[in-house]
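User: Okay, second chain of the day. Same drill as before: sequence in, structure tokens out.
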Amino acid sequence: MPGYRRILLKLSGEVLAGGAPFGISAERVKSLAAEVAEVASAGIQIGIVVGGGNIFRGVAAAALNMDRVTADHMGMLATVINSLALSDALEQIGIPTRVMSAIEMHEVAEPYIRRRAIRHLEKGRIAIFAAGTSNPYFSTDTAATLRALEIKAEVIAKATRVDGVYDKDPLKFPDAVKYGEIAYLEVLSRGLAVMDATAIAMCRDNRLPIVVFNLNTTGNIMRMSMGEAVGTVIH
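Assistant: Same drill. Structure tokens below.
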């Protein structure tokens, strides 16, 4: 039996680059699509939000004196490119998808409409939410939280390069300690860089749990979806 009926999977754009510093790795997208397809085939409804960091980072560009609003809009368009790539990979293996964009671009994607998104999920389609919230100054973590709440997802599955939440960066500090579970307030008070503070606060206010797990371990998306103890639960 699946642990969850409906999940929101949050992927960083860097995941799609594979081992490259930027761009989209066709092989990585293909393997990721295969894992997501396995979960969908188990009857679990999936919404996905993909970042755009492998193509363009709005915050980094703004730091180099680009107008922040312009930079964020460019970042949103990068998420649309990633969403289309993931959608194509899923469709090629027989999984129906819909890319829904917060910025209207009718020739490329459906406009995001909450009721329509829920209908797609109920019909077994994977809904990929692109272009963030359409508003600058909001990260894709916040967009993922907003969409998860709107579609009434039971959990946000935050896929990362590490196998959970640690008291400090485990990639830099070998003595970092992993949490099995942790409270929203502790994540905020300790300044743990899991998701941005706005997203964590929204999850806390609406009692939406977050599971942080390692995407680079094959099969982890399925294990998490089945309710197995994978990574760290923030609740």
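The domain at 6-234 is CATH 3.40.1160.10 (Carbamate kinase).

User: Thanks, on to the next one.
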